[in-house]
Amino acid sequence: MSKFIVSAGGSGGHLFPAQALAHELMRRGHTVQLMTDKRANSFVAEFPAEKTHIIPAATPNLRAPAKAFQAGISILQGIAKAYGILKREDPDAVIGFGGYPTFPPLIAATLRGVPTVLHEQNAVLGRANRATARFADIIALSFDKTKFAEKFEDKCIVTGNPVRDLVVEAAKKPYPALHDDGPINVLVTGGSQGAQVFSDMLPGAMMNIPDQLRSRIHLVQQCRADDLKRATAVYAETRLNVELAPFFKDLPRRIANAHLVICRAGASTIFELAQIGRPAIYVPLPGSLDQDQLHNAQNMVDVGGGVILEQSNLSPHLLATELTKILCDPEKLKTMAQNAKKLSTQDAVAKLALVAQDAANEEE
How many Cβ atoms from other residues are within 10 Å of residue 183's Cβ? Predict the structure, then answer.
């Protein structure tokens, strides 16, 4: 059996697929260790790693020379620390899942001659992954078409994006029945970081929905901790059946219970909705130079599993109009739920595990 070191950035988007792979490799009898940065503390407790190594990492900011210099120092320190860990632990392969905390371990692995696999979750090869890709032995992609991956085509393979065991379990639940006068479950989530825009827009949108429809809605919304008090006060005026929290540990179960999801368009969100099969209104995170979330969401729109509302155009009135149109059409909701599954890669974690085993010269 082999020893793997899995490296991932400190957000759920990187750590969730890494967690799924770790579970699969352990089921196959391998040992797994995690290498990440200090931002991942809230996720580490649930990560199935034999050991967790925290290394220095930073995001370079070329527009601020002083910060760029400090980031460079942190990255060099991270490479040095990762090199020492790899020398001591002697893994058979290092699997990186993106984010700048992945950069030092993969560079250190290259220096030590340890086989490397780089996994890209999004439909756009991320900046950290673009910087690392030339050093990776294999690049595993989630989407058939991934922007900026073309130049590395000779070492790319499409595996899909692994989802957590909780998601696989939640996917067993069929789309909930939607009766003419029955409750409508709407879930709002902004990913692991939350999204202020939903706290700004949803209360006003709900006030603009016809009374008869609004009375049927049961809203479950993830609010950033800073927005929770304000959102609670505003929703009190709508007389809406609403549940608010900064984070839901049982999010896959809540997705399975939902008739409609309103969300960002991170890769983990896209593939969890695809696996479970739920329709969604996607509001991609704006401001990214590469627009990775917009590209992710477009893949779901292309198969008929969701709609996109760009944040720059979003208003409570527009959101209310879209919600009213979708929620008043149960057949459309069910069709969108079925279509969402077209983007699902049911065997993504098994495919990626085989890639990892091959990299470690492990027989199937």
Answer: 14
